[in-house]
Amino acid sequence: MALLQISEPGQSPDPHQRRVAVGIDLGTTHSLVAAVRNGVAECLPDDQGRHLLPSAVRYLSSSSGGAGRVIGFDALAAQVQDPANTLVSIKRLMGRQRADVVQVDQLPYTVLDRPGMATVQTVAGEKTPVEVSAEILATLRFRAEDTFDDELFGAVITVPAYFDDAQRQATKDAAQLAGINVLRLINEPTAAAIAYGLDNASEGTYAVYDLGGGTFDISILKLSQGVFEVVATGGDSALGGDDYDRALLQWVMAQQGRAAWLDTASPTDRAALQQAAKRVKERLSDVKDDSESVAENVILSSGEACFDINKRDFAQATQPLTARTLTAVRKALRDAKLGKDVIQGVVLVGGSTRMPVVREAVAEFFGQTPLTNLNPDEVVALGAAIQANQLAGNNPDGDLLLLDVIPLSLGIETMGGLVERIVPRNSTIPTALAQDFTTYKDGQTALALHVVQGERDLVADCRSLARFELRGIPPMAAGAARIRVTFTIDADGLLSVAAKEQGTGIEARIDVKPSYGLSDEQIATMLQESFTTAQADMQARALVEARVDADRMVEATLSALKADGDLLGEQERADMEALMAALRHTASTSTDAAEVEAATQVLAKGTESFAAMRMNRGIARALSGKHIETM
Ligand code: ADP
Ligand code: MG
Fold first, then answer.
1. 377 CA to middle of ligand 2, Å?
2. Quick one: 283 and 335 in the same domain?
3. Whose CA is nearest to atom 24 of ligand 1?
4. 572: CATH
5. Domain contains 382
6. Cβ contacts of residue 478 below 8 Å, gap of 6+?
7. Measuring CA to CA, how many Å separate 106 from each of 268, 286, 379?
8. Catalytic residues
9. Residue 359 belongs to a domain with what CATH number?
10. Whether the predicted model's global pTM rises above the 0.70 cut
11. Is the pLDDT higher at 10 or at 298?
């Protein structure tokens, strides 16, 4: 008989065969991986005990041999000597074209304009942001697999709430390249709220204030019946800890009368100064007394620079930056039509919220002490880990239901350049919505489908996402075909559109991976425009609809004339031609919907007797050759 195996205490494999599922915060500055162990979410350290992995990849020339790249702290350490090949802040390029990246010229490496997505020039060749992110993700995957000595089942990866389809898809692509099964992408603020257990808290509205290295994000979340909804997002994609470093550096240089010198410093010296500024800034966060200062000397190619700054001066030098974050908070609240008094809790996220100046400003603004007991740079990864644990089925008791919303409406173009909205903005995802459409002309055998995103009524004012065609529709009279268009948005916010002709079952579909992303400013502008132009849009829509009706009337008359024109006398026919010409003229020149409708009515009236004659002929044909008795 085989012996039963017993393992060492604490080493026993879980009786339920736990699957290794982790949460990954793929950050602009730092990335982290976390997992739930023994019921508690915790960040996984590297072999030197460090939790944070700098989101930095340095590429080496192929002649240097070896793996050709260095990731994390080692990459960052080389930034001073090799800024052009040390890629940092790559998240800002994910799913974006070069022109869409804010302050792209300030990045220390060369960003190239490529169709689809910007890329980066390195000594090891051109790299896409997806490839660079995959290096970071793979490093975290190996860390998790080493920790658990098991293969990774899957990961929940976090993305900013404002990330659009292209940016989310790029993140998924990077994960796939790193060999990671993505259980789900979730929004960073939602993850932070989960880490604080707010999903178990009382229903209400919460603010998540996230000040990272290069970005500021404010999100307003609403929790009702255990479901989180993002009700508003805002922020500044070019404002973060780096700007505090820069402000500190400028202050120190001005103090020494060397302000101008900063512009002429070599890239290496500048990188050294920036890193020193960051260290001094971070040390200042622990300083208690206002007049206490932090000092550091930096060796440069041209001599030495001395940093010496006290807490009060730092607060003053960076006050405008903190004020800018609060302006964005006010705007987000305004967008959500909420007063700050309804905010039930404020979550601080991001390493930069360690700065006392920031904490104090946020506390004062909201009139309440923000939640800070979790590490602000870990909280997103911790929330993602909790979510991953549940999605992997490790926590069957968990009943967390996560809902995210789509930021802009999705629809398709209909006749006359109008938008028919199929998925309204703020719909919770995942979702699938369908609507039936029909053909416009007699005998039409193909349908051009144009998928658009935006809040405006006219296609020209929305953003084009994709075009595709449904072919092979059997020829039918206009309006007889039934084509069902279905929009499906998965849990990660990715869209696929299908069109199916109901009679024959022929189908066409497209997965929408827009070739470039929208910046958050663009989303904000698009929303803003839709609010201020609603009235004008309604009039424009009415006019376009009236014109489409007019065209349809003319089309129908023409096809009737073609079929049964012989029923008419010359004069009657000429009258009808004149009515059609008049309607065409009004429809193309008038900007008044009512006028166009009236002209359409005139043609409708003018063709009434012709329609009656056609009906009689139709009946006569149907009856011909039949006896009354057989009917
Ligand atoms: P991201 O989300 O952009 O990856 P993080 O949340 O990791 O960024 O935040 C990185 C920023 O936090 C950096 O600018 C860093 O200098 C800053 N930071 C980290 N610790 C401190 C500290 N103790 N005091 C002030 N700033 C800090
Ligand atoms: Mg972050």
1. 7
2. no
3. 282
4. 1.20.1270.10
5. yes
6. 438, 439, 440, 441, 442, 444, 552, 555, 556
7. 15, 30, 29
8. 25, 91, 188, 210
9. 3.30.420.40
10. no
11. 298
